[in-house]
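Researcher: Go.
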Amino acid sequence: MTALTDENVPGRHGPFATTEADPREVGRVRTEYSPAHDGDPDPGEIVWTWVPYEENDGRGKDRPVLVVAREAGGTVLAVQLTSRRHDGDRDWVPLGSGPWDRSGRDSWVDVDRVLRLHEAGMRREACALDRMRFNLVRHRLRERYGWS
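Model: Structure:
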């Protein structure tokens, strides 16, 4: 198995790079809980990809994201997770802990920043989030952006 370096992390470079998407300009978005153990990233699953820093200066890091919707062009929309505490911050939905974090730390999802991912730009070392926690994120996205 090849070790991941900053240069060979899926989603880092090229046509399959992870990018930020303007959630108000992505068109009609239908979120649905549909994880399937088929090797493809599905809404409701947490996958790992390289995520650019908000400064958009070429830096970023490999991190978990929650897939929330599929797009017609074959890409998916996702929101990033962090283990940094965000209690009381409306833009962050608390998820608690899960198998995506080997240390068992609590996680939060940032609904203020939406990412566009390509299947070839992510790792599938992931898990499905339970429907209840996915619905918390889905509800917040619906409130914020009018997604269905």
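Model: Residues 57 and 77 are 21 Å apart (CA to CA).
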